[in-house]
Design goal:
Keywords: Signal. By secondary structure, the chain is an alpha+beta fold. About 20% of the residues lie in helices and about 40% in strands. It has a domain at about 55-140: Immunoglobulin-like, CATH 2.60.40.10.
């Protein structure tokens, strides 16, 4: 029987590769370990691709002036694919208010603070564990001038 050197070399290479792999963990076990390392501290399982929890986006606050004071409107956008809970705080001068917010996955919520006097304020966003997430500043400047009646109302009063 004639021996083929190519078959013998192939057999030797296969055997050597098998001996090298005996000491290492299989690829499927390594993948499971890295996926379990992606668990978030609050217990949310984020094993899917691209499911990282990102902080909310705080849109620049808007101020609407009324006779009873200003209304500060804060808009939060959730870029994550999970529901998140936050507390939005408005503080400055003699004003300190806080409101809870639940942000749906990829959702947007607005928070309104009513009766705010003129001044400079800070808007803080805290997560459900009380950790600081983001902040911004807002300045309220409203003239408390009563609204003038329109021409139609004045004409009807005569």
């Amino acid at each position: 029987m004639k021996r083929h050197p190519f078959v013998g070399g192939l057999l030797t290479a296969t055997l050597a590769t098998g001996l090298l792999l005996v000491g290492s963990a299989p690829a499927s076990a390594q993948k499971a370990e890295s996926a379990s390392a992606q668990l978030v501290a609050d217990g949310t399982d984020l094993r899917g691709r691209g499911n990282s929890v990102r902080p909310p986006v705080l849109v620049r606050p808007r101020v609407r002036c009324h006779d009873s004071g200003a209304v500060v409107v804060v808009k939060l956008r959730n870029p994550s694919r999970v529901i998140l809970f936050f507390e939005v705080r408005l503080s400055g001068g003699s004003v300190a208010e806080a409101l809870p917010v639940m942000l749906a996955a990829r959702g947007v919520e607005t928070v309104e603070f009513h009766g705010i006097p003129n001044g400079r304020y800070r808007v803080d966003v805290m997560n459900d564990r009380g950790d600081f997430v983001t902040d911004t500043r807002v300045r309220v400047r409203c003239n408390a001038v009563p609204a003038r009646p329109s021409a139609a109302v004045r004409a009807g009063a005569r």
